[in-house]
Amino acid sequence: MEIILRYWDLVCEMRAMRREIRELTAAINAFQQAQSIEVKEVDKLALSIPEAAHLAGLSTAYAKQLIYSGAIKSMKVGKRRLILAESLKESLLKK
Question: pTM of the predicted model, to two decimals?
Fold first, then answer.
């Protein structure tokens, strides 16, 4: 009986180790993906706030905060606020 209990203890430990290995592997893969984010080339000279936020991987609200604080340069064209693609790239590379 003692051998059977020890066997099941080992089986449970092995399953726990496999689960931890899967979790660690997933964490390593997520880290590697975050490190290998490529800078996208932009075809447009100027971007709307939602476009700039999407390209930068930011929420629109946070992009607006950065624009209004002056961290990202923008310009008003009619009723629209546009961000120059080069300005966005420079601002993000500074951080």
Answer: 0.53
